[in-house]
Specification:
The complex is a heterodimer of chains A (about 80) and B (about 140).
Chain A lengths: L4 E5 L6 H12 L5 E6 L2 H14 L2 E9 L2 E7 L7
Parallel strand pairs in A: 1-2
Antiparallel strand pairs in A: 2-4, 3-4
Chain B lengths: L2 E6 L4 H16 L3 E6 L25 H12 L5 H10 L3 E5 H7 L13 E3 L1 H8 L4 E4 L1
Parallel strand pairs in B: 1-2, 1-5, 2-3, 3-4
Helix pairs in contact in B: 1-3
Classes of the chains: A alpha+beta (about 80), B alpha/beta (about 140).
Chain lengths: ~80, ~140
């Protein structure tokens, strides 16, 4: 899947994957896709929760290798400052 | 926008971690966040003092703290400095308690003024807290 911004959170634990995802989504422009790669199990559940809370679109969660996940998020609207 | 307000009353290392992790989590999930540093918590805003805290339990004259720091490093937990930097970068607000400054004789120049958004007492905090969905005292 295509992505515009990649965030590497491999071996990072709570709360860094959530924080780095948020930072990338702030930088992204409307319509762009952010891809987050990580290994922390709780973050795989919680990043989708944050995406919902932020009102963006979760495109895909994949785990091709066990314990190694990728999450794709689309920034579907601009944020007010 | 929804908001989280956190009072950091304790100066302990583990509690400073809790406050900053929750603050970062709230910001990451799209909430606003305010951290109010008061009493022993205000020690952590003094220049060079953020990482110098003791553990609230099993500190064992610094041995417990040393063991805990090793465990945190092994687990790759972010440092308090990194959490604070992220907190500010995501727009988190920091209030320093003016009453504590008066009681403890702390001057503005003793504190890291560049990261403090506001100086205030209980009224300032209540103003933030009354609009917050999440209110914590740590």
């Amino acid at each position: 899947m295509h992505s515009d911004i990649k965030v590497d959170c491999i071996n990072q634990i709570c709360p860094i994957p959530l924080v780095e995802t948020r930072k990338a989504l702030r930088k992204a422009k409307e319509g762009q896709v952010v891809e987050v790669i990580g290994t922390h199990p709780a973050s795989k559940k919680e990043i989708p929760m944050a995406v919902k809370s932020l009102g963006f679109k979760l495109l895909k969660i994949e785990e091709r290798e066990k314990g190694f996940w990728r999450i794709f998020i689309k920034k579907i609207r601009e944020e007010e400052e | 926008m929804k908001k989280a307000s956190i009072i950091l009353h304790s100066g302990d290392l583990d509690k400073a971690y809790s406050a900053l992790i929750i603050g970062n989590g709230a910001l990451a999930m799209g909430l606003e966040a305010t951290l109010f540093f008061t009493f022993w918590g205000l020690e952590r805003l003094k220049k060079g003092k953020l990482d110098k805290a003791k553990l609230c339990r099993r500190n064992l004259f610094g041995l417990g703290r040393w063991i805990m720091k090793k465990k945190m490093k092994k687990a790759n937990l972010a440092s308090l400095e990194k959490l604070l930097k992220n907190y500010k970068e995501l727009g988190g607000k920091i209030i320093a308690c003016e009453m504590t400054m008066e009681i403890m004789g702390i001057r503005k120049e003793d504190l890291r003024e560049e990261i403090i958004d506001e100086y205030g007492a209980v009224g300032t905090f209540i103003n933030e807290a009354k609009e917050s969905k999440i209110n914590l005292f740590i």
